[in-house]
Specification:
Layout: H1 11-25, H2 50-53, H3 58-63, H4 66-78, H5 91-103, H6 111-130, H7 142-155, H8 161-185, H9 193-223, H10 228-241, H11 248-264, H12 275-295
Helix pairs in contact: 1-9, 1-10, 1-12, 4-5, 4-6, 5-6, 5-11, 6-7, 6-8, 7-8, 8-9, 9-10, 9-11, 11-12
Length: 296
Amino acid sequence: MAPVNIFGLKPTLIILVLIPFISASCLYPNIDREVSSQLIIDDVQTISSCWDLLNCTFEEIRDWQPVTRLHFLQYMQATHFQRLGSSDQFRDMEGITEFTMRKGIAGARTWVSHVEAAAIEAVERAAATVLEYSHDTGSNPGVVKWVAFFREQCRGGLGDRREHDQAWSAASLVAIEHGINRAKSANASDPAARELFWVHGLRVHRELMQNRSIIVFFVRAALIFTNKSLAVTIERALEFFTRVNTPVPMKLWSEVVWQVGGILFGYHVEGNSSDWELLRLIAAQFWQEYQKAAKD
């Protein structure tokens, strides 16, 4: 099957492709739906004093194994972030790290590890700034956005879901872009097409967060008189997939994007089901998993 060049597409166009796919009937093979186990602080040996000082560098985080990045995220939320009213605000990022662990794509110094490291560093340094530990941004532009998020969160100014999601996703997008640029400047090995497609899927997810209320408005306008139940289903699916206080939605989202990327770039065994049949199976399985996860 000839490769499909999707990387020139604007995120909004990708959204238009994925939204109907996800909401009409979507799902992916037996993904782990369990919420990632919470870190037991007493049982964890911090890698260095930077965990307590919140001054781990980009290079240090990049060179860790994914499981260490996961523990660091959990450690920060269980300790420092409680003072910022954000003890559960980065479970979404835990879902990303758990996914990369499962797929084995974010080992030390890999292309994906640069993206993960930039995202984690931005959150870490922003928290250090707000908590007055340090004002070093590490030249990560995502830090400024996350500082604004943390300060609004502390003031209780992000109680509205729309405002919260817009601030959260805007900061995340900047950090992801920084990670991609760091990978380029470091001459990291080029990612596989499937990996790059998955990272584009992260961008699309953040765009969904930023524009969820607009999408819901148009969905309601288009379907309210013709298929109200479908409109409600799409709205609930969007609400579920843009939650950040649980890792489950991001793990499900990542699995779907990964499988679609596998089909687009021919990562399935020759002689197996056709591409369209695989898409249908992914859609059916994903929908079942979404329904189970949404009930939990």
